[in-house]
Amino acid sequence: MSNLWSSLERAARLHPDAIAVVDGARSYTYREFRARAAALALWLDNEGVKRGDRISILSWNSHYYLECYFAAAGLGLVLNPLNTRLHAREIEDIVRDCGARVLLAQAGFESIERALKEADTPVRLVARLGESLEPALQHWRSGSDAFVPIETDADDVAQLYYTSGTTGVAKGVMLSHRNVLVHAQGAIAELGLSERDTWAHIAPLFHLADAWATFAITHVGGRHVVLPKFEAEGALTLIEASRTTITNLIPTMLNLMVKHPSASGRDFRALRLILSGGAPIAPDVVRAILAVFGCDYVQTYGMTETSPYLTLSLLHEHLKTLPPEEQLAYKCKTGRAFTTIELRVVDEQGRDVPRDERTVGEIRVRGETVTRGYWNRPDETARAFEDGWLKTGDLAVIDAEGYVTIVDRAKDMILSGGENVYSTEVENALYAHPAVLEAAVFGVPDERLGEAVRAAVVLRAETHASAADLIAFCRTQIAAYKAPRAIDFVAELPRTGSGKIQKRALREAFGRGRERAL
Amino acid sequence: MSNLWSSLERAARLHPDAIAVVDGARSYTYREFRARAAALALWLDNEGVKRGDRISILSWNSHYYLECYFAAAGLGLVLNPLNTRLHAREIEDIVRDCGARVLLAQAGFESIERALKEADTPVRLVARLGESLEPALQHWRSGSDAFVPIETDADDVAQLYYTSGTTGVAKGVMLSHRNVLVHAQGAIAELGLSERDTWAHIAPLFHLADAWATFAITHVGGRHVVLPKFEAEGALTLIEASRTTITNLIPTMLNLMVKHPSASGRDFRALRLILSGGAPIAPDVVRAILAVFGCDYVQTYGMTETSPYLTLSLLHEHLKTLPPEEQLAYKCKTGRAFTTIELRVVDEQGRDVPRDERTVGEIRVRGETVTRGYWNRPDETARAFEDGWLKTGDLAVIDAEGYVTIVDRAKDMILSGGENVYSTEVENALYAHPAVLEAAVFGVPDERLGEAVRAAVVLRAETHASAADLIAFCRTQIAAYKAPRAIDFVAELPRTGSGKIQKRALREAFGRGRERAL
Lengths: 518, 518
Known about the structure:
The structure is a homodimer. By secondary structure, chain A is α/β, with parallel strands linked by helices. Chain A folds into 3 domains: 5-219, Rossmann fold (3-Layer(aba) Sandwich), CATH 3.40.50; 230-368 and 395-412, 3-Layer(aba) Sandwich (Rossmann fold); 413-517, GMP Synthetase, Chain A, domain 3. Chain A contains 16 helices and 26 strands. A 5-stranded mixed sheet of chain A has the order 11-12-13-14-15. In chain A, a hairpin with a 3-residue loop joins strand 24 (436-446) and strand 25. In chain A, helix 1 (5-14) runs antiparallel to helix 2. At the A-B interface, helix 1, helix 7 and strand 15 of A face helix 1, helix 7 and strand 15 of B.
């Protein structure tokens, strides 16, 4: 048996009096964190849930979220973290798909609770996460010392994350106790996590870019600090005030934080490392991160299907002697394989592409942190793998030392006039323009070219640039055929709950529709 | 599939030009190390061995040993490392027990080779590891780039170590690819192993106290340096000349090294950490290690059955502010649970003993680095576990922060006049005497007391102490009932090949026999 409860048990035994969690005015030691999670498990057990049952959670970041992750594991339940930005209808689909019997919901989601009660779903119990749960936790706490996790198999599903659906129907990614534990161990090794670390949960806990740290930081007895909902100034203040040492943020968050007027003049000396993940990041944002926070930076690339890390842009030792700008160039690569992952970049025949950093191939991965598949979807699971390797759908080049650079999602690559145009390269060119706050590049149907390159751009406040200005600027940065043919100025980019830009929505808004209108 | 070949593949991809192995005048980069291991695998494959076959290796430390570990894994073979000090008859028993088809033997073991050929054993091929293998490796090297490991299951047995037999018949401990890989990942995390590290293989590679580093150091792209056979001055010279950063030595080796006349005045500045393992260590030896090497020290405790680490005496952060002597006291504890291990100390009813550092119980462990059992011995396997926990047979106390201190092997504990006497405590008292080089304490039958405490002692060269002197000295250190009743002076202590003192042999030599003679 391997149950990820063991990480919390370990911390409670080795670091009983260390502060485990700080959430606003509340803080708990590891002894208390374990006792609260055990009490929650005893309460859920009393409500009749059984090993293997799915329970969904709908909440902003809070100490309850951390407790739920461990309580569910200790009972052998499958925890289904729900994206807080989903519509009631989408949540209905998910709880139906996975057959969740329980919904744990924070205050503020009453309309969703009502919708679930009215609709025909398997949810039989809706419990409120928050102050109103405290009497129950108090009641069950007396038995918490004696709580032991139920026998589970390492391959049992511990968590079920629905992919945020940039395309198609949401699918439930199954992660086992082993997936999660091996990832935690790998992250501890790669990032040197220890009891000296304080992790800021700023990115949402329903998303693995942040959630993995729940397990790794607990395992080493580090400290969790929690921001309920992202906003730039609150995130900056939390990092400073809590003396956060490490966190993983989503590029859009970092972009907003480094550009926030209150970012400068703060004391970030405790901060040793900022990771970004969940979406590609522009080199100019990385430069701003280094300037504002004065700490190290590492880019991460991952997927829900891989628990999540696939690569980290940690530098090989001999690269640390390079001039700063050259080191930065390596840090802006997607990275080399995460320690638990075997990674290849292959051509359409499945052969490794040359390690010349020019030839583009698809990233395929294998390892103990890779999902065994999608909940109740054997066909989609089978399609996701080839010869035991997960097909990521990401296109990349690889260099002689194994650093990969993603050039595009396979489905976002633009084929224009017979040339492959990788949207990331065009976006980086746009980000280099001082008026550009955010940019997304996509292909639209074009009679002559097959597809034409197009961009949606959010300008910074109090700046101006015309479409012609930006297109001309791009032509100074990249080949003319890669530059956008047209630019759409928008107030904000369409995103999934986890911060990924929905290029499909852009293609629909500015592709066919506009083409017809022209 | 998870095959520990993946660690070598990773290093060859990420650190192709880094020096991987230095063995005397020979050194190989990771590209070459991988190519040599692949060539060896192709040669073995051509010799007709198949997935699951056992192959035995009988060799002092060398680069070939490292290559064999990976070549065997890549072919899905079960590697059986043989203790170089075993008698031909013991080796016959082992190859028969595991059904080894191949013996890879270094020059110098010809008498064993002959004995195996004459006896009725399953060994069909005896191959010489060394210069004479080079033409074959050269021949198969052309195909090495294309070598891919065969499909294995993570639970397949990768290695089979026969316990060195302090009692009873040697049993084959099965370690799977997962056992070995998870241990490597855990050790990387615990010890902060990286490509900056150079590991000295001084303890024998047939024993896990050193062998585990083969996998962990390779995984991170660190450097292996090799000493063929232990002798104190050679070990000191290797550590200094190779700029070794970390190694794990057996206490008897360390004892000889720190007391060697050439130990002082050397440049050990590269050395960051010495681990000791394989047997208990006396606090005075630890003091000498800190003085001679000027690096950090961590005690390890483990078993072949657990890949091997069970505890490390790494200090919790807040203990690092204690005065040096108090820190030393913690470092001399057996340690807290290794990161992949769940550890309990339980009484005879299987309940956790109080964490008061006084109540003695048995250590029981669980985790992904624990063997699934003994080769072809389901009954002994079943007896080794209780409710899924491995019974270590080691008696220990545990403190409030989870540090355990082993007081004795269950079977070595002495019951004298109704009192439990733990031999380790008595040995530590003897080691504090300046004339004592080595000491082993054991119980012998006694009509009045049931058992009487007795000690075998090796005196340092050019020192003198009588039995009465040492007994009187012990009484100044520990309670009178714990002090030895008699002391036997010996030229050397009987040991197993891995350096463990054979107390059974002492009881036989100085127990019944002598009692009858008195």
